[in-house]
Write a structure and sequence with these properties.
With 118 residues, this protein is an all-beta fold. Strands 2, 4, 5, 6, 9, 10 and 11 form a 7-stranded mixed β-sheet that branches. The radius of gyration is 14 Å and the shape is globular. The protein contains no helices and 11 strands. A hairpin with a 6-residue loop joins β4 and β5.
């Protein structure tokens, strides 16, 4: 059974930092990409950042987080991180880990709440 174990969410003041992590366990096979998405109340689930698990490690970021967030991965551990700096109130959302593996298999984490408020 495949599981995505997320951690690192919480409450932080504007300008603060948080680091999210997500570990994929189970018989997941070869992973193509891992990433983070977020969903605020009343909004769609949007891409935050994705990273290729191959050697290239190509990354993709939403314009709203470029220069503030950094995605990274540990290939051997099937783990992805999201370092979030200079957080803003508009970053408040539930953040979901996503995995895309071979044969179009896709998995989602349970979500972790990030709240940016003074």
């Amino acid at each position: 059974q495949v599981q995505l174990v997320e951690s690192g969410g919480g409450l932080v003041q504007p300008g603060g930092s948080l680091r999210l992590s997500c570990a994929a366990t189970g018989n997941i096979g070869n992973i193509i990409t891992m990433g983070w998405y977020r969903q605020a109340p009343g909004n769609h689930r949007d891409t935050v950042a994705t990273i290729a698990m191959a050697t290239s490690g190509v990354t993709n970021y939403a314009d709203s987080v470029k220069g503030r967030f950094t995605i990274s991965r540990e290939y051997a551990q099937n783990t992805v991180y999201l370092q979030m700096n200079d957080l803003k109130p508009e970053d408040t959302a539930v953040y979901y880990c996503n995995v895309v593996a071979w044969f179009k298999r896709e998995y989602w984490g349970q979500g972790t709440q990030v709240t940016v408020s003074s």
